[in-house]
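Hi there,

I know you've been waiting on this one. I reran it after we fixed the sequence typo, so this is the corrected version. Both the input and the resulting structure follow.
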Amino acid sequence: MMLSLMWLALGLLLLTAGAEVLVRGGSSLALSWRISPLAVGLTVVAFGTSAPELAVSVRAALAGQGAIAAGNVVGSNSFNIAAILGLSALITPLAVHVRLIRIDIPLMLAVTAAGIVVLYDHTVTRFEGLCLVSGLVAYTAVTLFLARGSKAEAVEATPTPLRSTALASALVIAGLAGLVFGAEWFVRGAVDLARRAGMSEAVIGLTIVAAGTSLPELATSVV
């Protein structure tokens, strides 16, 4: 049991550090290629916060542990809304932009409905995966278009660029390595813990894995 928890802790540490380093290096590289800070803030930085969930789910899927991958997706969404939003609001009341209510929340509900549909038959096909990824690309494009009039918020979220392109490239490589090895160790710990505790992989994915991969977002939101 202790060994399983150790793998989980080490994996989570690497996932968190890897995502942070990847965002820092990726943002600097993108800015050095004259990509606008707005685009960087809404793509590299935004996707970077979801890098741990993505890495763990992909690793679990490659290892044939689809229950952990699916459980992580569903559990992370629940954790983000209940824990992250709830704790943030307990600390201080949150002002919600009207765009969030009119556009983002309906889209979130639509994506959730799509997830229910594709998971209903207990299998997610490659075509369904392609449709979901295509929807993400379309959403990002629309977000970039709509955010042109409010650049300050996205630019503010963009890390200060590094002066050295070589250092930025090294950070990207280190960040990717951290995500790969962190996901490997985290999934290993989760699977071993499930077996030792007599719990299904789906339950582990819905609870421990989902909460663990969402901790970086919780820390960012609370701070």
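Quick highlight: The mean pLDDT is 82.

Best,
R. S.
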